[in-house]
Amino acid sequence: MIVSSATKKPKIHSSAYVAPSATIAGDVTIGADCAVLHGAVIVAEGAPVTIGKETVIMENAVLKASGGSAVQFPLEIGERCIVGPHAYVVGARIGNGCFVASGSKIFNGATLEDGSGVALGGIVHVKSRLPKGGSVPMQHIAFGDPATMYPPDKAPEIHAKMHFYEDVFNLESGPDVRARAAQAYAKFLRKMHAQDKTLDEHRTVAPARRSGAEPPPTQVTQVDKVVDVMMLELEEMEHRRQESIRKQKGK
Questions:
Q1: What pLDDT was estimated at residue 138?
Q2: Phi, psi (deg, nearest 5) at residue 235
Q3: How far from 169 is each of 66, 69, 76, 88, CA to CA, in Å?
Q4: Which of 91, 104, 147, 222 could form a disulfide with 118 if both were Cys (CB 3.0 to 4.6 A apart)?
Q5: Domains of the chain as residue ranges with CATH
Q6: d(CA 125, CA 19)
Q7: Phi/psi zone of residue 55: left (φ > 0), alpha (ψ -120 to 50 degrees), beta?
């Protein structure tokens, strides 16, 4: 589903594939030869979303930009990246050739420099930076600039160092800050989406082929299978890399 939001319409390259069940809304730009698979949601709310060429957004991933009059969090994803199933990426900058595994979360103001990756269930927290070629191990938390890696049981320690509501919602902390954040965000969303309108479905332009040649009858299905296999191979490579790093540290 392609949706205009706050008078902004998605700009999708004609060669990109967008699954019929994906949702693209607002000031979103999707580059050439990208693939946005079933159930993915890409929404610009107050700031733009830009996705570079040959990037894959897998099933049920959620990508958002956010921003109001005081704070802006555009989302930029570079070229030749993979964002895995059920990943959540909001208001971040992701460089070229990055890998965001299934279930990962990357928050407002975070940066993944070129060639970096986040393994299964990893988190890159607000305003944190993962250096070029860096990696977040499975279920670990990256926090700081440059990011330090923390295991899951250190989450309370990270929380104590953060100013989440100030950084994300521009609200001073207090006992009722969660309620004030919900109130402000609901007001913003009502205004932002008041005039949303569904547009004509995006049509992918088939690649040029020799005269008389017919495309394989299962071409679309095979694309999803190839991407799934690629995802598993990349996750296995990342796992082996992390094992090697641990072994070297243990010497």
A1: 96
A2: -65, -40
A3: 10, 11, 20, 18
A4: 104
A5: 2-198 (2.160.10.10)
A6: 29
A7: beta
Question: Other C-beta atoms within 10 Å of 124: how many?
Answer: 28
Which strands make up the sheet holding 93-94, listed edge to edge? 11-12, 28-30, 49-51, 75-77, 93-94, 111-112, 129-130
CB 35 within 8 A of CB 227: yes
Q: Quick one: pLDDT band at residue 191, thresholds 50, 70, 90?
A: confident
> Is 74 in contact with 67 (CB distance < 8 Å)?
yes
Distance CA 140, CA 153 (A): 9
Is the alpha carbon torsion for 57, 60, 61, 63 positive or negative?
Answer: positive
Threshold 0.90, pTM exceeds: no
Per-residue pLDDT band at 251 (split at 50, 70, 90): low
Asked if 212 contacts 206 with a C-beta cutoff of 8 angstroms, the reply is no
**Within a 13 Å sphere around the CA of 220, how many CA atoms are in the beta-carbon half?**
11
- Judging by DSSP bridges, how do beta strands 2-4 and 197-198 pair with one another? antiparallel
pLDDT digits (tens, 9 = 90+) for 20-31: 999 999 999 999
For residue 146, the 8-state DSSP code is T
Q: How far is the C-alpha of 80 from the C-alpha of 95, rounded, in Å?
A: 9
Q: pLDDT digit string (tens) for 85-118?
A: 999 999 999 999 999 999 999 999 999 999 999 9
